[in-house]
Amino acid sequence: MSDSVAWVLQEMTAELKALNMWSAQPPSAEAMASTAPFCCDSMVFEQWLQFVLIPRMQALLDGDLPLPTDVNILPMAEYALANRHEDVRLLLFIIGRFDACFQSN
C-alpha cells in the first residue's frame, strides 16, 4: 500500500502544478494552526492538499509509520473544486485513487 500511496501523492503534486494550483508561498502559521476540517476556515482546498495532506502523508511514509485506515477526501474535493475554471477532472480522479488506497478489500 505504501508504494501506491507514494505514487498517488506524486501524481497529485504533478497535477496541482499542471493546473497552476501549486503555491510558492505557504499559508501563514495561523492558517496552518486551523483545527477546522481541511483547514476550510483558513485556506483553499488545494493549499490544504499541498501544505497539509501531502506533507503529512509523506512524513508517515518516510518514517515507515502506520497509514490511516479510512480516507475519504473526494467528496470535499468535489465540493471545494466545483466552481473552478480549470479542468479539475484528472485531479478529482487522482484524489479518488488516493482514497481507494485506504479502502478495505
UniProtKB/TrEMBL annotation:
Family annotation (Pfam families): DUF446 (PF04287)
Domain YqcC-like: 6-100
InterPro entries for this protein: UCP006257, YqcC-like_dom, YqcC-like_sf
Source superkingdom: Bacteria
Gene3D superfamilies: YqcC-like
PANTHER family: CYTOPLASMIC PROTEIN, CYTOPLASMIC PROTEIN-RELATED
Protein's recorded name: YqcC family protein
Organism: Alkalimonas collagenimarina
